[in-house]
């Protein structure tokens, strides 16, 4: 069930993550040029509404369609999404997430139905006209059918969010957000759920607190600082570097293993997240667009100009609350927080509970035999912790004198077939095995300082230098 939820969440966020640069561009234009911005400019501010109403939904639809049906799927996804854009007076991000992949799936089924029935020389004619005709029909159907559905859904969501905001209950969302983040659903929550609501709120108010509910780096910073003082072994020694990477680099995944070692620390991040949200709401703090990665630097860049004081107070207080709660849990609960021993214990429990075979880590396929030419680091989005892990391993391989090994980072759901070794977090091991069943898997818990790196380098020496 967890794997299916991760896959669905990854699909949602996968339509947004590749377009984060466009969201940032829109956010910067909004922060600078709207009436309450840093440099109000009526002419430049005319870009804000068209970008949010048309550009961003079309990019989402194209990306979602491309995932399902390649470039043809992306094109028909964008065509069909124009129906929900024109048929509504609100930003249709949710509509784009529905219509883009659905249109691509319909075209893909049509292409499969026509396969083998098109005479030679007529392929281009059939391909172009089938895409155009089906796209036009789907745009019309989306305009009269999907638009009212999504508008109603949007009204329900707004009413639910309004209830939480009006009754001061928004901090309670941390009860769901923080545990879900640790299960690697952070991108799905932020970009699949909160960002569409945030962008609509920006259209109405010029800023939104929803961009801060998941992106706040304070709770994770508090956990890592607690480990700096009360941790043991490798957990304590790696925590300072992890804190810097998390807070300034914005890679939140780096603190997830520290919570998985001691699940009681969820209480600390929930309390820290809730206190931060309370203060953000109290000071009327909001961002103009999604902050990705969730670095304090990115958050400050996306902050509405009147929000800096409340923003800094909220982040610092959330870190302090998480730290104060986490410290006694690490010191006095009597749990061994050694990273190495926790890894071994967790491995045994997972094998027993899920039936994961020991071979998943050690069994080598035909591709993994002999010299290794390509290694992939995989994380949920393929952009954060995997990129950091790839950088670390590149340095270790260069120091070992190994050459000719390509190291890439990739989403766990789309690992290239020519990859021979995949390094990923243990929570993502099953998805990696399904994505590339022929690759050798190395499952780790800490992308920054995994003890498995040394063993991998030694193994590469034996295979590539022998």
Distance between the termini: 43 Å
Low-confidence stretches: 342-368
Q: Approximately what portion of the residues adopt beta-strand conformation? A: under 5%
Mean pLDDT: 82
The assigned structural class equals mainly alpha
What oligomeric arrangement do these chains adopt?
single chain
Strand order of the largest sheet: 2-1-3-4
Provide key terms for this protein.
single chain; 466 residues; mainly alpha; 4-stranded parallel sheet; globular
General description of the model:
This protein is mainly α. It has helices at 2-16, 20-33, 48-86, 93-114, 123-166, 174-205, 210-213, 218-230, 233-249, 256-260, 266-282, 296-302, 308-332, 339-354, 359-362, 385-399, 429-435, 452-465, and strands at residues 374-379, 406-411, 421-425, 440-444. Residues 342-368 have low confidence and may be disordered.
Question: Which helices and strands, and how do they pair?
Answer:
Elements: H1 2-16, H2 20-33, H3 48-86, H4 93-114, H5 123-166, H6 174-205, H7 210-213, H8 218-230, H9 233-249, H10 256-260, H11 266-282, H12 296-302, H13 308-332, H14 339-354, H15 359-362, E1 374-379, H16 385-399, E2 406-411, E3 421-425, H17 429-435, E4 440-444, H18 452-465
Parallel strand pairs: 1-2, 1-3, 3-4
Describe what is shown at a glance:
By secondary structure, this protein is mainly α. 67% of the residues lie in helices and 5% in strands. The chain contains 18 helices and four strands.
């Amino acid at each position: 069930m967890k794997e299916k939820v991760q896959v669905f969440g990854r699909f949602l966020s996968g339509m947004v993550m590749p377009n984060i640069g466009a969201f940032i561009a829109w956010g910067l234009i909004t922060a600078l040029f709207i009436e309450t911005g840093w440099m109000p400019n009526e002419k430049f501010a005319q870009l804000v509404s068209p970008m949010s109403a048309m550009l961003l939904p079309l990019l989402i639809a194209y990306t979602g369609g491309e995932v399902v049906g390649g470039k043809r799927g992306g094109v028909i996804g964008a065509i069909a999404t124009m129906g929900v854009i024109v048929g509504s007076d609100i930003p249709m991000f949710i509509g784009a997430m529905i219509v883009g992949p659905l249109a691509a799936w319909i075209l893909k089924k049509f292409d499969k139905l026509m396969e083998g029935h098109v005479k030679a020389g007529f392929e281009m004619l059939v391909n172009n006209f089938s895409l155009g005709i089906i796209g036009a029909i789907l745009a019309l159907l989306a305009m009269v059918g999907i638009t009212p559905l999504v508008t109603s859904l949007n009204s329900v969501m707004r009413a639910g969010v309004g209830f939480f905001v009006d009754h001061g209950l928004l901090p309670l969302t941390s009860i769901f957000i923080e545990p879900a983040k640790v299960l690697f659903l952070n991108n799905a929550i932020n970009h699949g759920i909160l960002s569409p609501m945030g962008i609509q709120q920006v259209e109405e108010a010029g800023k939104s607190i929803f961009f801060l509910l998941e992106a706040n780096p304070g709770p994770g910073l508090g956990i890592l600082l607690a480990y700096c003082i009360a941790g043991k072994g490798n957990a304590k020694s790696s925590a300072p570097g992890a804190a810097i990477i998390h807070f300034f680099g914005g890679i939140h995944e780096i603190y997830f293993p520290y919570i998985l070692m001691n699940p009681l620390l969820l209480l600390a991040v929930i309390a820290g997240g809730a206190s931060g949200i309370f203060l953000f709401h109290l000071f009327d703090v909001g961002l103009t667009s999604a902050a990705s990665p969730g670095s304090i630097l990115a958050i400050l860049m996306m902050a509405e100009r009147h929000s800096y004081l409340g923003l800094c107070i909220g982040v610092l207080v959330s870190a302090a609350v998480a730290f104060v709660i986490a410290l006694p849990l690490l010191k006095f609960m009597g749990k061994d927080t050694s990273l190495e021993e926790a890894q071994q214990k967790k491995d045994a429990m997972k094998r027993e509970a899920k039936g994961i075979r020991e071979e998943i880590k050690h069994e080598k396929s035909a591709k993994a035999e002999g010299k290794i030419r390509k290694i992939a680091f995989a994380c949920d989005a393929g952009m954060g912790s995997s990129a950091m892990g790839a950088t670390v391993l590149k340095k270790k391989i260069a120091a070992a004198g190994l050459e000719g090994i390509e190291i890439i980072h990739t989403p766990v759901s789309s690992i290239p077939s020519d990859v021979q070794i995949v390094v990923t977090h243990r929570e993502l091991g099953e998805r990696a095995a399904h994505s590339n069943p022929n690759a050798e898997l190395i499952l780790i818990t800490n992308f920054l300082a995994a003890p498995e790196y040394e063993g991998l380098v030694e193994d590469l020496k034996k295979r590539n230098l022998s």
